[in-house]
Amino acid sequence: MYVEPEVFYRFDPEVAPVPVVVDVSRSGRCYPIDFRSPVPFTALHDNVSMYVDEIWKDSPKYGATMVQALFPNTYIDANRHELDLTPDMIDGEWPVPLEPASARTGLGLLKSKSRYGEPLQERKLTVAEIQHRLDRYFRPYHRELASQMDRMLTAYGFYYNLSCHCMSAVGAPTHADYGKERLDFCLGNLSGASSSADFIEFVAEVIRQQGFSCSVNTPYTGGELNRRYGKPDGRQESIMVEINKRKFMDVASFRKNEGFDAIQGVARAVLAAVTQRARERSKG
Hints:
- With about 280 residues, the chain is α/β, with parallel strands linked by helices.
- The chain has helices spanning about 40-45, 50-55, 125-155, 195-210, 225-230, 260-280; strands at about 1-5, 10, 20-25, 65-70, 90, 125, 160-165, 185-190, 215, 235-245.
């Protein structure tokens, strides 16, 4: 294991390596000393992808590389574009034009709202404070991911990336599917922009064969991680994997429930199938 303190863990393959990267960007629980928010810690913690790092922890046993962010996504979100900000969050003027997207609903690079609409910031952040978060946390995490994927692309000519998260069982007020029940899993490839249709359907079928329901590109299609590292050309395959929280944890107490082992079993099935696909493909 390699550690960049406060930024990421990298877990290297324990068996013959294959060009598969599992990234867990939103399970970080190392709150930086300058983190401030007016909401209760339980509301902050509800925005963490709890246990996702543990669900996918066996990635190295299958030959995959796993990179896990240690900082919380409520401090800075590695799954957002670094210009996904709105001017009203900044004390000062950003040096280049902003490109707000998710930030318009409060869920951009810096969260202005929790998923249930509570204000997360106690004040505007200065340009210097935001640049510090980018330079100390966001960019090093992405440099590591890019380094791993570039190395695999050079060595093998392709890679598979699973960007792993968890989602609420019912759409939250800040989301497009507010009030709607969600399936057990959701896969996304930016509606075809970050992976081939063949690869995402391959993973969806593995999940369904384990007895779980799975949607594709609804209610989520993916995020910045998929945009950066995926293409529909079959060489840079990047998909988002969202798991319904209710299937593995009590959302009130944050404790695992009786479904956790089964969900971890699905993750292992996906890892086994994707790494085997990578091994066969790398042999030509």
